[in-house]
Amino acid sequence: MATLSLKNLNKIYPNGFHAVHNFNLDIEEGEFVVFVGPSGCGKSTTLRMIAGLEEISSGEFLINGERANEKGPREREVAMVFQSYALYPQMTVYDNIAFGLTLQGVDEDVIEERVQKTAKILGLTDYLDRLPRALSGGQRQRVAIGRALIRKVGIFLMDEPLSNLDAKQRVTMRSEIAQIHQETGSTTIYVTHDQTEAMTLADRIVVMKDGYIQQVGTPYELYFKPENVFVAGFIGEPPMNFARETVENGAIAFGDQRIDLTAFRPDIAAMEGKEIVFGFRPEAVVLQEKENAARMECQVELTEMLGDYTNVYITAGEQHAILKVDSHDTPETDGTITFWIPAESMYFFDGATEKVL
Question: CA–CA separation, 302 vs 315, rounded Å?
């Protein structure tokens, strides 16, 4: 296990493109940290700088308090799992897992013991004599994880390892990765664009956009206490609903309706005349009258019944939003739906900075 410290890390390519800006993060021993964000936000570039596969343009990277900027990947003692599996097709599962130890000249008896132990953890014992082409995508990914795991290094890096799997395999592999982390206790950094993976796996999540850190926190903190509009909209499925409006007489418009905020925000007078972004999560609404909540009546445009819940697409004038309701409460399309937004589920962001108020 290892502690990591990234201090003002920057990555600037020769063409002048600034991919990562002043990245600061301390990672504790045994922590599972997930970098999440849209494509091109700099998360994989940051991971590759940690691995030693990308040169750090400026800033300092420390492993266990020791500067590692100039160290190569081997010296950093990191193990990395790639999106593409990167298995040797002519080698058996056993040889793929053992490859790193074989290169190091480890005794064959030790290799045998460690391969068998790793294969047992990953459920690969019955597949050790097979070639990668005879395995499913999920099994190949487990081999790739096993090859990294067997080295017993302090830092485990994973770059979108589940993106090539189907939905069912991703769910299975998420639970397996979580279990492996519990058993090994390795300090792990995991990169994904999938916020569901981030929320289910991470001790802490780093949300990135355009090379900048937007927020660092636990899944709970990012979901319930987003610091800006981007984080609020990125975390959660379906995403948070937003209305960008100007406060007039203590109220804001929501399409052709008005929401009186004087009962919900004691400081609303200070926002008079200012543009704010009002937000609420689709699953936060209730369909029965509730105290200290804003009542809304909107047109139902479309419904999506997804098993235990239904996504209800609504309109109020030109304002559009999504509600997430129990499937038994699915309304009729082209009808109306009345719902309440509890005060504790309302979010307010500054219209100019998009930071939480």
Answer: 10
